[in-house]
Each structure stands twice: as C-alpha cells, then as structure tokens.
Amino acid sequence: MLNVKNLKVSYGESKVIEKLDFDLAEGEILAVMGRNGMGKTTLFKSIIGILPCGEGSSISIEGSELADKPSFKRVREGLAYVPQGRMIYPTLSVTDNIKVGLDATKSKQIPEYIYELFPVLKEMGKRMGGNLSGGQQQQLAIARALVTQPKVLLLDEPTEGIQPSIIKEMARTLKKIRDSHGISIIVAEQVLSFTLEACDRFLVMEGGAIVHSSKRADVDAEKIKSFLSV
Amino acid sequence: MEYSIEEITSIVVMQSFSGVSLLCIYALMGLGLYIIFGQMGVINMAHAEFLVLGSYTMCLFSQLVTEHMPFLTNYYVALAIPLSFGIAFGVGYLVEWSLISRLYKRPLDTLLATWGLSLIMQQSFRTFIGARETSATLPEWLLGSWSATDTIDIPISGLVLLGLTILLTLGLIFYTKKTRMGLRMQATTQNREMTGALGINTKMTDRFSFAIACGISGIAGAFFTTMASTSPSAGENYIVDSFLVLVVGGLGSLAGLFVSAGFLALLSSILEFFMTGSIAKVILYVIIFITLMKFTKGIFYSKVRS
C-alpha cells in the first residue's frame, strides 16, 4: 500500500532521517515507536509533504510516486494525517472543522459513519473546535482526516494528553476504522500498552533510523520498552 | 432661535443618517482589510491604494462614458462598480502571486514590501493617469435627494452607500460562512500547513482570498468618488482609518468591524461638532488608545481553548 524507500530528511545542515525504508501492507496497523526526538514526527511530516525529503527519496502509495508532490496532492492520492497536538481549527465549529477535510472529496455531506464512530461530534456540531476537551479534539482531528477518504492514515501520538480510559477505547476505534473501511494506519507512539492493543507490526526509531522491527505474533514487549526508556 | 418638535426630529434624523453614512464609509474601508489583515494576517500597507485604484477606475470610466457613450451616463455607475472590482481583483491576484506569497510568516518584511508597493502604485497613478485631483461625473439621479417628509431630505448617494455596504457585507458573510472557498480561506488562515495536509491547495486559496479582498476595496474606492475627488496620494486619507476600524473591532470579527465603525463614526461626529477637525482627530486617537489598552485584542475578540 505505502512504500517508503531511501527517505532522507534534514533541517538545514542537520540530517534527521537518513536512508529510511519501510512498507505498509493493505489493512495493516503499524506502530512507529521511539522516544522524543527520534524522528517519528519528522517522518510523518515528510510523508505527508509538510517537510521536503532529500534527493533520491521515494514515497509511493499503490505505486504512485508522492515525493515530489505538495501536501494537498498527496491527500488526494489517499494519505491522511492527524498531527501531534491535533491542530484543529479553534475558531471554526466542529462541523466546519470536519467540512475542511471534506473539501478534498467531491462529497458535500459528512458521512454518517463519522458520527457513528464519534457520536460526541454530532452533539457538539456547533461548538467551536477550540472549546472542546483534549479527547474530543482528538476525535475531531481523526474525523477530519477520515472524511478525506484515505487509504493510509497517519496518526502522530494520538494518546498524548488523553486519559487512560479513553486510550483503550481509541485502540478499539482504530481497529474499527481499519476493519470497516480497509484503511491502513501508521501510529507514531510512545505508549506501548496502546500499540500492543491496536497494532499488527512494530517499528522502533532511534536517531532517525529503524533499529527494531517485529510482528505482533513475535513481539518482545520488554525489548521495545527498553528502547522507550530514557 | 426656537425649533419646533418637527424641526428637531428632522435634524436628528438627517444627522443620524449622516452618521450612518460615515459608519458605512468606515466599514467599506475596513471590509477588504478584514480579509487581508483580519483573516490572512497580512499587514497590507498598500490597502488604500486598492481603494484609490477603484476610484480611478470609476473616474476614468466616467470620462469614457461622458466622451464616447453619453447614452450610458445615467447607468454607468452600475457598470463601473463591477469593473472596479474586476480590475482591483486582477491587480490583487498578481500582487499576491508575485509578492505576498513569498512573505507569509514574515510580517515585518510584508510591512516593508507592501509599503514599497503602495509607493509604486502611487507613482504609477501619477505617471499614467496624472498628478491632479480628478473626480467622476455623476449621473443626475445620484446627486439628488429623497424627501421622506417636508422637512427631511435624505441624499440619494447616502442611500446608495448604505445599500452597497449592506450588500457587500451580506455577500462577504455568505462568502466566508457558506461557501467552500470561504471555509478554505478560514482554514488556511488559521493553519496553512494543516490545511494543505487536509487536501486543500492553500496557495490558490491565499491568492483568491487576497484578490477578493482587493476587489472589495476596489468597489469601496469606486463609490468614494461619489463623495470626494481622488488623487494619487488619496490613499493616505484612508489607510490609518482602515486599520483602526479593524483593530478596534477585533481582528477577524465582522461584527466587531461594524461596532468599531459605528463607534468611530459616532465619536468623529460628536468631536468634530465641538472642535476643529485636527483636534478632534487627536482626541479620537487618544480614546482609541485607551480603548485598546482595555481591550488589547479588540472589542470582539473570540476566546478559545487553543
């Protein structure tokens, strides 16, 4: 579904990601784990096109090359992004926040399944995005990404600032999104319990490179934990 | 001298109407800037030159009609207003593409660049149109007045100004709140990167929004020729008031723009009744300064969690 090959990303002279390769299969939920500053957000930003990638980098979705395309074209090819900190539009209503995502499609109506997944968004449709709680904002950010009709959903630290009881519910929601809509998902995370609940495969990043990879069947939680501890 | 109740009522009504006209002028000055500064966050020092561009379009079109198409004299205003919009829109589109698009997130550079643009536009008006003041030949019907009663006369130009302001404002509300382009504009101005990552072409959105705002200023400028003549540096009369109206109301708030326009119109009228224009202006600025100390982000600033 998504292929990343020889990805290089720099901030000026400082190389943050150097020759990174990985694939994402159709319907797979992949965890990209690592401590702060290891390159997870940079990886996501370069995949979605917010950060430019270096020469020779390749990012493709179903064989279509994206590396030289701007963000909005990548979204139209099937990528969707939920950033760390949600970045919802604070002075737009909940409904309008979702409609911004809808703009990438030809549809004018917010699909009913969005409200089935996140009923609170229907109740709070007229409330300003900036006045929602952290958990509600997270749901809004995911809903806004889902209405773009993605093939691949990138979720950057979705559990950040969310209470533990909602984290389990969020893992179930991700599986529901994958199962009902066939969307492949990549989650950048530091909360191992969440990824163990939701993900099929685990990558660990350190210093901008992948240092560990395992499938759910043979995951070594202790080893991943060792990478996450300071 | 003693006035009858009827006469006092007439004076109050006519004075109120001239206050409403002043409110409309302030609001029209601020409408284009509401998008460019209030929504897009671009400090456009050349905003007033787009008003002047609209004024010149009206004046030149009026000359053209008077000299070559006299049969259109009574109707040309209806054609000149969309033409002013079109020309200001086109110039705005080019300016965004060539200059502004390179300066987002660099407010100080934008300030300097648009100030330079204002000088270039002023000099262009001087070179290609002329340095002398010019005005439009207005159709007869616009110069007359409507007698509401025997003692109340309302100028037709004031009524048209009021109608135009209402029309433009409703159009702008519809555009920002009810159209996809309006939603794109609001989203882009709140978070450009995130909006691109939701599938919206933010460069085109910026360009179109800037051009629309310039077009609105063009319409405002065109109508200002019904009240005053124009000259290459006429923008200097508009620029400070345009920013004041917006800042006092609260950036990004259309309701704030109108409250602020009303506030400034009321203050100007009262102060200028009791003192000279320049002293009234000084006192007006002092009052605005105190208001902004109390409401640092404007009277109608929306508070949200993030």
Quick structural overview:
Chain A is α/β, with parallel strands linked by helices and 230 residues long. Helices cover 36% and strands 26% of the residues of chain A.
Main traits of this protein?
heterodimer, A: 230 residues, alpha/beta, 2 domains, six-stranded mixed β-sheet, 9 helices, globular, B: 306 residues, mainly alpha, 12 helices, 2% strand
What is the residue-averaged pLDDT of chain A? 90
Q: In what order do the strands lie side by side in the largest sheet of chain A?
A: 6-7-8-3-9-10
Number of domains of chain A: 2
| Distance between the ends of chain A | 33 Å
Radius of gyration of chain A: 17 Å
Unreliable spans of chain B: none
CATH topology-level name of the largest domain in chain A = Rossmann fold
Low-confidence parts of chain A: none
CATH architecture of the largest domain in chain A: 3-Layer(aba) Sandwich
Largest sheet of chain B: 2 strands, antiparallel
The largest sheet of chain A, given as strand count, sense and whether it forms a barrel, is: 6 strands, mixed
Give the helix tally of chain B.
12
Helix content of chain B: over 70%
Word description of this protein:
The complex is a heterodimer of chains A (230) and B (306). Chain A has helices spanning 40-48, 71-77, 94-102, 112-117, 119-123, 134-146, 164-181, 192-198, 221-228, and strands at residues 2-11, 14-24, 29-33, 58-61, 64-65, 79-82, 152-156, 184-189, 201-206, 209-215. Chain A has 230 residues and is α/β, with parallel strands linked by helices. Chain A folds into two domains: 1-78 and 167-230, P-loop containing nucleotide triphosphate hydrolases (Rossmann fold, 3-Layer(aba) Sandwich); 85-149, no CATH class. Chain A has a six-stranded mixed sheet with strand order 6-7-8-3-9-10, with helices on both faces. The two termini of chain A are 33 Å apart. The model of chain A has no long low-confidence stretch (mean pLDDT 90). With 306 residues, chain B is mostly helical. Chain B has two domains: 32-234, no CATH class; 235-306, no CATH class. In chain B, 72% of the residues lie in helices and 2% in strands. A two-stranded antiparallel ribbon of chain B has the order 1-2. Chain B is globular and about 70 Å long. The mean pLDDT of chain B is 87. The A-B interface holds A 48-50, 70-72, 75-76, 80-81, 83, 87-92, 96, 99-101, 103-105, 128-132, 137, 144-145, 148 and B 180, 183-184, 186-187, 190-191, 193-202, 252, 302, 304-306.
